[in-house]
Design goal:
This protein is of the alpha+beta class and about 200 residues long. It has two domains: about 130 residues, Pnp Oxidase, Chain A (Roll); about 50 residues, no CATH class. It is built from five helices and nine strands; from the N terminus they run H-E-E-E-E-H-E-E-H-H-H-E-E-E. Strands 1, 2, 3, 4, 5, 6, 7, 8 and 9 form a nine-stranded antiparallel β-sheet that branches. A hairpin with a 4-residue loop joins strand 5 and strand 6. Helix 4 crosses helix 5. The longest helix has 16 residues. The protein starts with a helix and ends with a strand. The mean pLDDT is about 95. The protein binds flavin mononucleotide.
Length: about 200
């Protein structure tokens, strides 16, 4: 296969019915203000030729990092297929009608947390204690029920990642001669280079 996206998408589609839950999760790395890497796991909402989409809070550190330096890497390991990848490229943050519609399909508790992020404390900011969070969320729920706080989250966004660099690793358990490649997008074409495993 000559196209890295087709290659990865094929693997991804094969992984979904294998019920390898890990196909849906990936490690997203960004660089913080001190140029230090920060990794967190995220859920892949969709993966098509249009890109990889992840639901994020618009005020989260990962988005602050991206907006300040633009650097990211997404990595995953799919044990059932004995396959790993890492991806770099460009990104776009979208916050429009599609995001609003998708947000309404999230579980209620997740939506309450999103409203909390926007009205009480942003994601990843410090708390005095676990009790503080529980009390503040209970108060928020009462305020939502009383109509004092709108049950909406305007900053929930989708992060769209468009690969321009993909590294793939297909395990070969018997001989350990794993098949590794890097693929780089050059003038709309993927150029593949095999690597020593
Ligand atoms: C399995 C799993 C899936 C997750 N999915 C998401 C996700 O889709 N979006 C998200 O913003 N955080 C997700 N998180 C939480 C992030 O790992 C992270 O704690 C949070 O986004 C704050 O990251 P930041 O402070 O680096 O921005 C997930 C965590 C786990 C363990």
């Amino acid at each position: 296969m000559d196209d890295a996206l087709d290659f990865l998408l094929d693997k991804y589609q094969q992984g979904l019915p294998l019920e390898d839950a890990r196909v849906r999760f990936a490690a997203l790395v960004t660089l913080d203000a001190e140029n230090l890497p920060m990794t967190r796991f995220v859920t892949i909402r969709s993966f098509t030729r249009a890109g990889i989409s992840i639901s994020v809070s618009g005020d989260s550190p990962k988005i602050t990092h991206l907006m300040s330096n633009g650097k990211w890497e997404l990595a995953g390991f799919w044990p059932v297929q004995l396959f790993q990848y890492r991806i770099r490229g460009t990104y776009e943050i979208r916050c429009g009608e599609d995001e609003r519609a998708t947000w309404h399909m999230k579980p209620e508790a997740s939506r309450v947390l999103d409203v909390y992020h926007e009205n009480v404390r942003p994601q990843s900011t410090p708390l005095a204690s676990r009790e503080q969070l529980l009390e503040e969320v209970a108060t928020l729920r009462r305020n939502i029920d009383a109509g004092l706080t709108p049950f909406e989250a305007k900053k929930v966004s989708s992060l769209w990642l468009s690969p321009t660099f993909i590294e793939t690793w297909e395990g070969s358990d018997d001989d350990r001669l794993h098949d590794r490649s890097i693929w780089k997008l050059s003038e709309s074409k993927w150029v593949r280079t095999r690597l020593v495993p």
